[in-house]
Design brief:
The complex is a heterodimer. Chain A is α/β, with parallel strands linked by helices. Chain A has helices at about 45-55, 75-80, 100, 105-110, 115-125, 130-135, 145-155, 175-190, 200-210, 225-230, 235-255; strands spanning about 5-15, 25-30, 35-40, 60-65, 70, 85, 160-165, 195-200, 210-215, 220-225. Chain A has 11 helices and 10 strands. In chain A, the strands form 2 sheets. Chain A has a 6-stranded mixed β-sheet with strand order 6-7-8-3-9-10, sandwiched between helices. Chain B has 22 helices and 10 strands. A 5-stranded mixed β-sheet of chain B has the order 7-6-8-5-9. In chain B, α11 (about 275-290) links the parallel β1 (about 265-270) and β2. Classes of the chains: A alpha/beta, B alpha/beta.
Chain lengths: ~260, ~525
Amino acid sequence: MDVPAIELVALTKQFRNTKKPAVDSVNLSVSQGEVLAIVGGSGSGKTTTLKMINRLIEPSSGLIRVMGEDVTNRDPVILRRSIGYAFQGVGLFPHMTVGQNVSVTLRLLGQDTECVSKRVDELLAMVELPAEEYRDRLPTELSGGQQQRVGFARALASQPRAILMDEPFGALDPITRDALQQEFRSLQKKLQVSVVLVTHDMSEAVLLSDRVAVMHEGQVAQVGSPHELLTKPVNDYVAQLIDTPRRHSDFIESLMREAPIEGTS
Amino acid sequence: MTPKMQILFEQLPDLLGGHLTLAVPAIFMGVLISVPLGILCVKSARIRGPVMSLVSLVQTIPSIALLAIMVALLGGTIGYWPAFIALLIYSILPIIRNTIVGLESVDPAMREAAKAVGMRPVQQLLWVELPLALPVILAGIRTATVWVVGIATLSTPVGAPSLGNYIFSGLQLRDWQRVIFGCVATMTLSLVLDQLIAVIEKSIQARHRVSLVLASCALAGLVGIGLAPGFMAEDAAGFSNLLGSREGVAESLEPEESPLTLDGQVIRIGAKGFTEQFILAEALRERIRKVGGTPEVLTNMGSTIVFDALAKDTIDIYIDYTGTLWSTVFKEANPIGRVSMRADVAGRLFNDFGIVLLGPLGFENTYALVTQRKTAFRYGLSEIGDLTPVAKDLRIGGDPEFFGRPEWQRVRQLYALDDITEVGMDSTFMYQAVADGQVDVAAGFSTDGRIDAFDLTVLGDPKQAFPPYDAVVLLSPRAAKNQNLVHAIEPLLNRVSVTAMRAANRLVDEDGESPRESARQLLAD
C-alpha cells in the first residue's frame, strides 16, 4: 500500500494562556488522492489542526509526516511551498493581478518567467477563467466565485501532492457554492490530489469528502466514511451533527413525494 | 512686468535652485533612513520606544533653533550642510510614523496568506506588507515634503540660499511684494512636489505605467539636480555660481582698464540681515566684478554666524562695526575712544582669528538721539547735553531693548537724563512718532535713511557716551592674502560718509529702490 499523503501522530497544541490544549493528541491520516473533511464547531480545534500541517502554527508535541517524511524539523517555508493552501475568505493579494496571485508560489520557487506564464494560463484554464481575459485583472474586479477559483488555481500552482482548505466555500452564495463544489470534486478526482478540508458544515463534508473526521473539544470524536458516520455514530455529538444533513435530505425527499413528514421544520 | 518684479524673477533660478538642492535630497535621504527604521520599529518593540521618543523629541525643537544648533554642532560650518542635516531630521518623523502605521494596518489575514504560500519573512515584507502599506507611507512622505519645503526657507540665516532669502530680505526692507513673492514661490514648489508624489501614488494603484514613469522621471530629475556633485559638496549655491560666472563673462566684455584681475575667482561676500548690509554687500560685489572676480553674496546671515563663517574662511569678506565686535566678539563692557577701539579690535581680530580689518568705510552706524527741527529750535537743542535742563518735560521713544542696554545707562548718567520719560516702541515706528510729535526725541540709528526722510536733527554726543560703531571691512585669513582682492576693495575705504550712507539707505527703505541700484549710486558719488 502507498504511504499516506499526510499523517498526524499524537499531534498536540497547547496555547500559552489556556488550560486545556486546543488540539489534544490527534491521530489522522490522509491517503493519496483522498479528501478528508474535518468537521466541528467553533473552538473544536479543526482550524488549528489544519494550520499545524503546514506549520503556520507550530505543534507543541506530536509528529507530522508528509509522503512518509517527518516534516516536524524541516524548513517550514519549503514545506509550505510544497503544500497548496486555500483560505477562508479567499486571501488573494489585492495589489497583485490574478496572474501574479496564481504564480506567487512558482515565482518563490524561482521558476523562469516563460515557464511561469505557461503554467498560469494552464491553471486559469483548469478553473475555467480564460487567461486572456482574467490574467491581468485585479482581484477586486472579480466576483466572489471567480476569486475563489483563482484561490484554487493558486493552491494548485506548484503541483502539490496535498492541499489544505480552510472553509473555502464559506463566503459564497448557494448557487455559486454548489457549482464550485462540483467543479472542485471533479478537478480533485482528475488531479488525484490529497485534500484536507476544514468546514463546520456537515452537508458539505458529506458531499465532498471520502472520509470525515469529527472534532470536538480538541479531540477526534470519530473518523469514518460518511456512510459509517450516518449508520454508526459513536456518540450523541456525532449523531447530532450527522443528523442535520439527514433531516434535510429526508425533508427534501418528502417534498418530492408531496407528503410532509411530521416533526420536521 | 515692473522692474521690481523683474529683479525678483531674475533671482528665482538661483534661489529656487538653492531651495531644491536642499529640500529634495533631504527628503530623499529622509526616506532612505526612515522607511528601514520604521520597519525595524515594527519588527522589534525594543527599539521602537527609544526611536520614536527621540524622533518626536527632536521634532519639538523649534526649526530655526535646530538650524542654529546644527551650525554649532558642525563646528561653525555654515551654508549647505547644517541646513541639509536639520531638514533631514525634520523629514524623519512623518515618514517613520506612517511606515509604522502603514505596516501595522496590513490585514493579519494577508500576512498569514503570505506565509502560507511559502514566503520567507523578507519576502513577506517586500512582496506583501510594503506594497499594501505604500499608500500610507507615501502620505507620510508627502507630509514630510510639505514640511521640509516650508522649513527650508529658514536656512537663509545659516548661509544657505533658499526662497527664504526673499522673505527675510523682504521683511528687513519692508518690501511686502518681495515677502509675498517668496511665500508664493515656496508654496508653489511645495504643491508641485506634493502633487508629483500623488501622481506616483495614483499611477501605482491604477497601474498606469506611463504616468508612473513620467512622474518618477520628473522626481528623479529633481533629485538628480540636488545630488549632482557640482551643485552640492562645498558649494552652498551651485546656481549662484552659474549666475555669477555668467555675470562675470558679461562684465569682462566691457572694456575695463585694470591691470589687476581676480580672473574669475569666486569671492564670497557675507551680509547680515538689514538694509545697510544689503547695500554694502552689493557695493563689494560691484567692486569685485569690476576686476573680473566672480562674487557670490550670502545675505541675511545671523550676526555671530557671519563672523564665524569669516573666521573659518567660509566667506571671504563682510562689513561689521567696531562697537559690535568690541562687545559681542571680545565681550568688553566699557567702550574706549574711537581710534583706540579700532586699533585694539584690529589687533585682536588678527591675533585671535587671523582676520584682517582692512580699514573703515568712513561712517559709523551708532545710536543717535534725533529730534524734530522745530523741537530743537524751541528748546535750543544741538547736543545731548542740551536735553538735561528740560528732561522732565520730554518723552524719548525707542526700542524697548535700547532702554535696557548699557549704552543708554551711560548716556543717562553722563548727561543726567534721569527725568526723561521713556516710551518703548518698535524701531519701525519711532521716526514717524518723533516726526508727528508723539515723542520729542527718538533713539535711532545714525545711518537710517528716515532721519533725512522725516527731516530730523541728530543731537551731538561730545562726551562719547555712545561707543563708536565704525563700519569696517573684514577679510578672512585666506582672503587677506589675496592682494588683488585687497586692491579691489581699497578704493571703498574712507569713501562713504554718514550722509551718503543715510541717503543710500533712504533710497531703499523709502523709495523702494533695489539695494544693487542704491549701491551703484553710492559708488558713483
